[in-house]
Structures are given as structure tokens and as C-alpha cells.
Amino acid sequence: MIPIQYIHQKSNKNLILFVHGFTGGIDTWGTDKESFPSMLVEEEVISSNYDLMCVNYYSKIVEFYIPRVAGKSFLRMFGLGKSAISKNIGIAELGEFLKSVVEFYCSPYKNVIIVAHSMGGLVTKSFLLNNKTESKKVKLFLSLAVPHNGTDWARLGEALSRNHPQLIDLKPLSKTLNGINTKWIHNQVEMPKTIYFYGQYDEVVSVESAIAYENAEPTKVACNDDHFSITKPSSKDSLVYVAVKKYLVDFIVNFQSENDMLVKPFKDEGQLDHEIFVLKLLVADVHKTLVHNAKSTFFNAEYMRKFLIHQSIGIEELTALYSKIEHLYSIAFGKILGGTIKDSNDLVTEIHQNILDEDKAFLKSTIPLIDAYHKTGMLHQLANDLEKDVWWAKVNSINDLQCLREAMKEDD
């Protein structure tokens, strides 16, 4: 069995990886003529930004493993056996298989989005939890009718196939599922964004099981599907198709935004020399190295703020961040007034360090585009506003700024 099958391969930076469930395969997603992946490829924004690949692994309800093993082992004794012997293996081992697929087949890609159905979602979670290096590549997990808390159907399946490792794992409260769910909660911060799709007519996986335990309110999508139709949208107007497409397109938009928000090198050609925040630093006799750093962070913060405002992203949170940064500054300025900080250079260094230290705590932001570098620039944006009382020396005077500005103009 070949582990993967490409549906669309154009050397894009991003990959959509489809993972089928119990007893499934490529046909989980539809027919050769029309399937979920092939429908997505018809969307220009998806075909131009994603490659699409399906994963294959062995999963059968009933197998005749012992006779096959005996027969093939006999042939191999004489060098006549060619094909490998397949058998059902548990979710943890399938997770290791998926790790190998991501490591060796997905290495050319920068980002992987996993679309998983039923047991395939549990295989995905096992992979994500136990392989931290490879799982970092996975940025989005779309969970389609996945039995996160097991399914009673697995108990019935055991009547057909005793000691079936996958059916044992799929039972409610199984040791495997309990372990996955516990680790999922404890490692929530490190896991990719997960969207839980469930079928309202699903008689295999209940609504309660289709949505995993999370530390925060989970993102869920109710679909007018059963357990199997949820992977085979009848048209591009199907709810599951429209929703999956939206999340895939949104990821591309956000990914491009992240590229736009990467810290940009600042070439100092004097374009910021007359800005108020620079004059305040110069009046306080702050060293030129710190002044240059302030200019660079200010430049990137200006770009960041204009971008977010243009995209209407996180405006209220941005305002709250400015208030928190100003609060950190006030605490540090109190130290120079009290003599704990000796001069302006130490004050600038102190507040810059405080912003770096508090980046993931007091200054934590749900906007992933803003990092400590931008937040440092936000401090100098505050200093650039004369209505904000952000200075770098005990004694401050607007007249000093005006005099310095005039002197700089004469030098120009």
C-alpha cells in the first residue's frame, strides 16, 4: 500500500493533508470523478496556494491475518514472497506512521493543514501530542466527525472482530482515548488551532464525542450531515464544504498577513530625526545605539498599526496594549525619580527589557502578528504623542524639544 496519494501537486508552500478514518481510504472523500479534495482544487485561491494529499493506512473490520502470515512466511523462506503483510494496528502506532508521513513526504512544505475524518482525527491527535518537532509544521486541524470521547459503535464492532486494536482504542473511556484527552488538555497551548465539525444526523459519533475537551470554548461547526456524508459534500453549496473552504482561505490570508508583519530592516537616512520621540531621546542624552533601536522599532510599529487598522484587526486589543505599555513605562519612570535607576540610558534599557519579559504575560496578545519588537516600537509611538507624558529624564521641557528641532533644521 502506497502511504500517500497526491490530488494536486504544484510545489506550493502549503499542504492540505487528508486523513481517513476506520476502514476508510481514498474513497472516504468521494469518487475519482468528484471528491472533496478535487472540488477544493477547482477553487483558484486554494489551488494556487495549496498542494493536496491523501494519506493511506491499513484498516479493515475483519482480517484473516494468521493464514496470510503463515502462507507468506513460508514463501519468504524460499525468497518467493514479495508483498508486505498488512494488519490492523492501534491508534498510537498509526500516529507514528503519520509522523513518518509528515517527516518524509511533507518536508518541502512550510505549513500543513490536516483534514481528518473519524478515527483519522484521533490518529492525528496522537501524532501531534507525541511528536513535537514534526507537529510544529501543522498549523490548522479540521476535525470531521471525530470520536474524541469514543463511540459505542466500537463495542458492536468487537462482536465481528475480537481483539481488534483499533476497535479497542475507539471504545468510550478506553486507555488510549483517556491518555490522548488528558495530554490534549495539558498541551493545549502547543496544539494547532482546531475546528470541530459534527454531523447533526450522525449515528456513529455523538455531538458530545465529536467535540474534544478544551481549556477554552471550542470552535465548532454543526453540519446537516451523517457520519459519512460529511466527507462527501454533494455540491459546493454544502455547509461542510463552504465552512472548510472558508477556514482554508482564511489561513492563506492570515499567513500572508504574517509575512507582511515580519520585522523589516530599517535604514536610517534621517527620515525620523525630527519626530518627537527621537527629540525626547536626544534631549535626555540617550546613546545613539538606543536611539537607532527606538527608530527601528517605531518604524515597524507604525507599519504594524497601519496594517491592522486597514484590515480592521484587533483594534480594541491594540488600544489595551498601548495602555499596558504606558503602565510599564510609568513604573520604570518611578524608579528614576526614586533613584533606583541612575540615568536615561538605564531607563530606556529597563523599559525595553520589561517589555521583552512581559511579552507573553502582562502584554500577551491574541494577535499573533504583534511581538515584543512591535511592542517596543509602540512605546516610542506613545512618546511621539505630546499629549502622552512619556519622557526619558527627570526634568522635561517642550521648549527643549523646540530648541533642538530648530538647531537641527539649521544644521540641515
Order of helices and strands: EEHHEHHEHHEHHHEHEHHHHHHH
CATH architecture designation of the largest domain: 3-Layer(aba) Sandwich
Oligomer: single chain
Count of alpha and pi helical runs: 17
Low-confidence segments, ≥5 residues, pLDDT <50?
none
Name the beta content range: 5-15%
The Rg value, from CA coordinates, equals 29 Å
CATH class call of the largest domain = Alpha Beta
Number of strands: 7
Structural topology:
Elements (H helix, E strand, L loop, with lengths): L3 E5 L5 E6 L16 H6 L2 H4 L2 E6 L9 H13 L13 H15 L5 E7 L1 H12 L1 H4 L2 E7 L8 H6 L6 H6 L4 H12 L6 E7 L7 H4 L8 E5 L15 H22 L15 H8 L4 H24 L3 H24 L5 H14 L14 H12 L14 H14 L1
Parallel strand pairs: 2-3, 2-4, 4-5, 5-6, 6-7
Antiparallel strand pairs: 1-3
Report on this structure.
The protein is α/β, with parallel strands linked by helices and 412 residues long. It folds into 2 domains: 4-259, Rossmann fold; 262-411, no CATH class. 49% of the residues lie in helices and 10% in strands. The protein is built from 17 helices and 7 strands. It has helices at 36-41, 44-47, 65-77, 91-105, 119-130, 132-135, 153-158, 165-170, 175-186, 207-210, 239-260, 276-283, 288-311, 315-338, 344-357, 372-383, 398-411, and strands spanning 4-8, 14-19, 50-55, 111-117, 138-144, 193-199, 219-223. The chain has a 7-stranded mixed sheet, sandwiched between helices. Helix 4 crosses helix 5, helix 12 crosses helix 17 and helix 14 packs across helix 15. The longest helix is centred in the C-terminal third of the chain and has 24 residues, at 288-311. 35% of the residues are buried. The model has no long low-confidence stretch (mean pLDDT 89).
